[in-house]
Amino acid sequence: MPRHNACDDFHRTSEAVRRDLLGGAPLTRRQVLAGGLGAGLALYTAQALPVTRVLEAAAADAAAAPNAPVLVSVFLPGGVDLLDTLVPLHDFGRYADLHKELRVDAEALAGGSGLGLHPSLTRGLNGGVRGLFERGKIGFLPGIDYPDPDLSHFHSRHFWETGLITERSAPGWLGRWLDRAGNRDNPLQGISMGYGLSPVLRSGRAPVAAVASPGDAGFWMRNVWGEPYKEAMATYERLGHGPAGSRALEAARDSVRLAKGVADRLAPYAEEDGRDPLASSVPYPAESDFGTRLRYLAALISKPLGIRVAHVDADGDFDTHDNQKSLVGLLADVSECLSAFQADLEARGVSGRVLTLVWSEFGRRPEQNGSGTDHGAGGLAWVQGDRARPGIHSDYPSLSQLDGHDNLKVTIDFRRVYSSVLEQHLGADASSVIPNAGRLGRVQLVR
Amino acid sequence: MFRPSPADTEAGMAVPPTATDARRRARRRRRRRGWSEAHVRRLFWRAGFGATPREARHWARRGKRATLHWVLNGGPSPAPHIRGARVDGHGLQPKDEWGHDVLWWLDRMVRSRRPLQEKLTLFWHDHFATSDQDTPLMLAQNQTLRRHALGSFPALLRAVTEDDAMLLFLSLADSDKEAPNENYARELMELFTLGRGYAERDIRHAARALTGFRVDWDTDGPPRCYYEREAHDAGVKRIFGRHGRFDWQDVLRLCVNHPAHAPFMVGKLWDYFVGTPIPGGTRRRLAAVYRRSGHRIKPVVGEILAHPALYRKLDAPGLVKSPVVYLAGALRSTGQGIDRESWAWLLEGMGQVPFEPPSVAGWDWGLAWLSSNSMRVRFDVANYLMDTPRLHVNDGSTPSKLSPRAAVARARRATGNPWISGRTEAELVRMARRLLTERKLKDGEWRQDKQERADMCQRALRQLLLCGPDAHVH
After folding, report:
1. What is the pLDDT of residue A189?
2. Of B186, B275, B374, the CB nearest to A195
3. In this complex, which of B320, B375, B431 lies closest to A256 when CB atoms are compared?
4. What angle do CA B10, B14, B17 make, to 5 degrees?
5. Tally of structural domains, chain B
6. Cβ–Cβ < 8 Å for A181, A32
7. Strand, helix or coil for residue B193
8. What is the per-residue pLDDT across A285-341, written as a single tens digit (0 to 9) for each?
9. In this complex, which of A151, A231, A372 lies closest to B434 when CB atoms are compared?
10. Which residues 113-152 of chain B have a CB within 8 Å of chain A?
11. A275 exposure class (CB count in 10 Å sphere: 0-12, 13-18, 19+)
């Protein structure tokens, strides 16, 4: 396995930046205001604030910047195959050689790119992912990876999650952006849809939230009600404050406080008497948890909650070592869910400010191993949404000139994509989040 | 029907009482120096699923050596007698009913007289994480992990490599000389034995050496794997700089004897039990113990459990309880057996379902367990615990004249005397004072209101002891 000590992002940065990468840099009020949330946010004490302040902060966020852009990160776990997803029809002979049994019948995309899409990507509303591309709402990034790719799921995923080529623990790249540009009081500014918090959103000090089901984020206590209930919940929240003798206890206190803050903020959107304030007018696939997470997210983005960045995991496992055919179902789910998400954002009138970045930790070896494909380099990502610049934004890797490990050559660094999205969509200073962003170059991803 | 064996009761060796009473008492005093109930509770949480008040008292008297000996080897003890699992009036059907596999293992954790064996089985399940396979295969693998939990690592590694669920999960079954699949070779080195210190070529050659396993799908039950010499690549491979016609057992031997293995393995065990960074010297010493023992697990774990680092900051626990440890610990320390299916889906809500790790790397341990959402579900766990016979507070059952301090003490006894910080205790007393102080309400409602408030106060205190921030660290 290649080692990354020599080019470790952590080692290449200055001491000041390192502190920041590890979540230790204190925010200043000026940074918050410069971060684009607008004036009128009288935030800020070093201590955690009571719930009323959390509510005010979320409302203030939303009111101060009702049109603030939202970035949604969607992860396809396991390493999705480039060749069978965005199919190299321009080199079909070589593709058919490499994927003797696996190759899929793809129809060419309009625009003369010489590429086709897996047939499952037509599934869903308005022609699915293919329909989105044809309507000019998707920009593909074939060959995406980083120099000297590491074929471990866990290393590669960690690099993508942190935006750093380092094996050290570090906050996620969007968590670091919130540390700089977010606020100290609104956990919903960074929201992970699911049971746990995505490492992409892990922050140094900005509060962030995980929400599995907004309808039941609220608390209850068995056979305790009225004044005693209020008193008990106030005590529960107070237990979340104060100094702690260990990081573990501090983290437990933080999450008690955040859970209470999230519950209070989402209380108005709980289902009541069969009426669901978050109901969607767009049909999502009935049996898909991924679809459900996106449906909740679209609804929450449309409410004044101050959501700025979000993360959603797709279902299933794209690690197709011995079952490449499972892509048929996996990509169908992706296509159905993402097309419903886009239609829903449009129906709610918020699609103009949401950009979605779909990614996976690596690509797969171009030559099949029998019934599947092993870990490889040069994968696939795409941006989608009203603001996405449509087209193919990186070179398709050559199928005949492979790297020294018989893998596809990398044609675009994912950190270049991160830097571009930070600047073009979130209006951030990319170099404050991604080390050496200045040297990575940019690609136009937002129209 | 599948019948789980009862929790282990194998008799270990008790410390033989040979000395005279006076000499024994003197020796006991010496042993106990620097060994308190707080030490016992720390050890029992780290090496198992918590200590009951009775266990804490008993082992604090017996001293560190005797306690560690029992933890490692078993034997007579005042471990709680907890009723075996019954759901809706029936025993569990782990192979047939949804969630019963999870409940079956949870039941073992709660009732086991060898908590360390269950804790290490959980460690190996995370280390050799396997998922998505037929339940009978997963349960068979679980028994394999338990059998080897404290034994020889090479034997464990061989058993896991040949295990049906693993062969299917990491695509080693049907990886043959025509098209070797790298999946197992890569995780074998990265996750199971080395962490680092190998090259991409080692993986590819190891994949060739590991070929030969086949799978028979035409069975009455779950698929069965077997070895077929003809499917094996018998050619020469080069792994870690050595040439040979290696087969799968050779690859495992090469990995275990690789210089990176011992430091990797003892470091991972250290992280599981201690959590603070392992000092370089300690790592070297533990690696030497591990190698000298012929790569046996018990001697290393014994050294780790005896290490002073495990007992630092007894009043500021530094490890986050995983959801399984949190739940099994709460049940065990309140003496409550498995009596409902709810625990299975609550574990899912907290983010840790046994037999379903999220990937081959297992779960993300540590602070990652604590999201705003999982904390919300842990609160719900306490709601369900408050519905169990030992914690339930019936209307009118709480003495209405308790002082706030006495009310907190009563709630602590009911919840198994869990550790709480001084700050938390002060907040709970403050809450009790506010709830128990009489307020003038409507005429004629005075007495009832007071009793109702006493009951509710007791419920709220127990709830917050079960799911306040202090309950999630050990």
Report:
1. 95
2. B374
3. B375
4. 155
5. 1
6. yes
7. helix
8. 999 999 999 999 999 999 999 999 999 999 989 999 999 999 999 999 999 999 999
9. A231
10. none
11. exposed
Residues of B in contact with A253 (CB under 8 A): 469
Give Cβ neighbours of residue B206 (< 8 Å, ≥ 6 apart): B185, B188, B189, B237, B239, B246, B251
B409 domain-assigned: yes
* Token digits of residue B365: 């341990």
CB distance B463–A224 less than 8 Å?
A: yes
**What one-letter code names the amino acid at A421?**
V
Whether B276 and chain A come into contact, CB under 8 Å, resolves to no
Contacts of B186 in chain A (CB under 8 A): 151-152, 375
Q: How confident is the model at residue B443 (pLDDT cuts 50, 70, 90)?
A: low
Q: Which DSSP category does B320 fall into?
A: B
Residue A52 pLDDT > 60, yes or no? no
pLDDT at A56 over 80: no
Contact call for A322 and B181, based on CB within 8 A? yes
Answer whether residue B124 is part of any domain: no
Residue whose tokens read 């077997």 = B226
Q: Which residues of B are less than 8 Å from A252 in CB distance?
A: 320, 370, 375, 469-470, 472-473
Task: Please choose, from the candidates A342, A356, A343, the residue with its C-alpha nearest in 3D space to the C-alpha of residue A388.
Answer: A356
Residue type, position B162, single letter: E
What is the three-class DSSP state of A306? coil
Q: Can you read off the two tokens belonging to residue B342?
A: 């709810």
Q: Does any CB of chain A come closer than 8 Å to the CB of residue B42?
A: no
R_g of chain A computed on alpha carbons:
22
Q: In Å, how far is A375's CA from the nearest CA of chain B?
A: 8
What band does A363 get if pLDDT is binned at 50, 70 and 90? very high
**Could you tell me if A84 and A118 are in contact, meaning their C-beta atoms sit under 8 angstroms apart?**
yes
How many residues are present in chain A?
447
Q: Is A143 helix (H, G, I), strand (E, B) or coil?
A: strand
Which helix H or strand E contains A289, and what residues bound it? Answer: helix A289-301
Provide the b/e sequence for B276-306 (b: ≥16 CB within 10 Å): eebeeebbeebbebbbeeebbbbbbbbbbbb
Residue located via tokens 């499917």: B231
What would the two tokens of residue B473 be?
Answer: 């660290």
What ipTM is given for this predicted complex?
A: 0.90
> Residue B235 domain-assigned?
no
**Calpha distance A142→A380 (Å, rounded):** 5
Please, where in chain A does CATH 3.40.720 lie? 15-215+282-439
* B residues 388-417 lying closer than 8 A (beta carbon) to A: 393
Is A153's CB within 8 Å of B359's CB?
yes
Interface of B with A in 149-208 (CB under 8 A): 170-171, 174-176, 178-183, 186, 190-191, 196, 198-200, 203
CA atoms within 13 A on the CB side of A221: 24
A127: distance to nearest CA of chain B, Å?
A: 31
What is the CATH architecture assignment of A15-215+282-439? 3-Layer(aba) Sandwich (3.40)
Q: In terms of Cα–Cα distance, which of A262, A265, A241 is closest to A253?
A: A241
Question: Is B435 within a domain?
Answer: yes
pLDDT in tens, B135-189: 999 999 999 999 999 999 999 999 999 999 999 999 999 999 999 999 999 999 9
Residue A44 has pLDDT above 60, yes or no: no
**Residue B211 touches chain A, beta carbons under 8 Å:** no
Spatial separation of the C-alpha atoms in residues B162 and B461, rounded to whole Å? 50
Contact criterion met (CB below 8 Å) for B14 and B76: yes
Spatial distance between the Cα atoms of A60 and A45, rounded to a whole number of angstroms:
16
| DSSP letter (8 states) at residue A169 | -
Q: What backbone torsions phi and psi does residue A117 show, to the nearest 5 degrees? A: -115, 145
Q: What is the pLDDT of residue A154?
A: 87
Range of the domain at B451: 404-472
Report how far apart, in Å, the C-alpha atoms of B363 and of each of A49, A117, B78, B130, B131 are: 32, 34, 33, 11, 12
